[in-house]
Design a protein that fits this description.
alpha/beta; 4 helices
Length: 205
């Protein structure tokens, strides 16, 4: 992959459109997840969108040829990030105000997506992943960084993550323990086809 031309989405806190007709977003088209959901606890660097921990570092690494989407569900976090980007003269970052069930990214626009320490905060991962798929290019990768602990304790057990991703058609490509730091990085391929929304069966923790 040529990083100079990459489009990367940072889905960094709280938490593209479905290929088939759905009910009103966030309602009955998708069955509820069968696990606890952690609350959003911080805008600090582990989540990233507020102070731009990952956004700033990746923008500097990839340079001006890349397009980076930084998305959050809280406008005040994006306002903080916008101010920082202007202060540090960082360009190439597009800020996107998403919805809890939809990151609101442009169709077929993203080569790499990073969800850092926020997957366990998504109330309905099936709908979120479903609506993420159309924004991904055919060869796109989805990287999820999280802790191996129950979702109510701000983590996601790897077996649960694999089950929920597979339920929407995502295929795991890699799994790396982030030693000596805590947690893991799991990498998934974009599903070529999406299952019927109402037929997705929730996974148990």
């Amino acid at each position: 992959m040529r990083w100079g031309a990459v489009a990367l989405a940072l889905l960094l806190a709280g938490v593209a459109w479905a290929a088939q007709p759905l009910d009103t977003p966030g309602t009955s088209a998708f069955r509820a997840s069968d696990r606890p959901v952690a609350g959003i606890i911080s805008t600090e660097s582990d989540i990233g969108a507020g102070l731009g921990y990952y956004t700033v570092r990746i923008a500097r690494r990839l340079g001006p040829g890349a397009t980076i989407y930084a998305t959050d569900v809280k406008s005040e976090y994006l306002d903080q990030l916008k101010a920082r980007l202007a202060r540090e003269r960082i360009t190439g970052v597009q800020l996107v105000l998403g919805l809890p069930w939809d990151p609101q990214l442009p169709t077929d626009s993203v080569d790499v997506t990073i969800l850092s320490h926020m997957y366990h905060e998504i109330e309905n991962p099936y709908e979120f992943l479903y609506r993420l798929q159309p924004s991904l290019t055919p060869g796109a990768r989805v990287g999820i960084i999280d802790m191996d602990r129950p979702t109510q304790n701000h983590g996601t057990p790897p077996a649960l993550l694999r089950c929920e991703m597979a339920a929407v058609g995502y295929r795991q490509l890699d799994f790396v323990l982030l030693n000596p730091a805590d947690g893991y990085l799991a990498v998934f391929a974009r599903p070529a086809n999406l299952p019927p929304a109402g037929g997705i069966k929730p996974c148990r923790q």
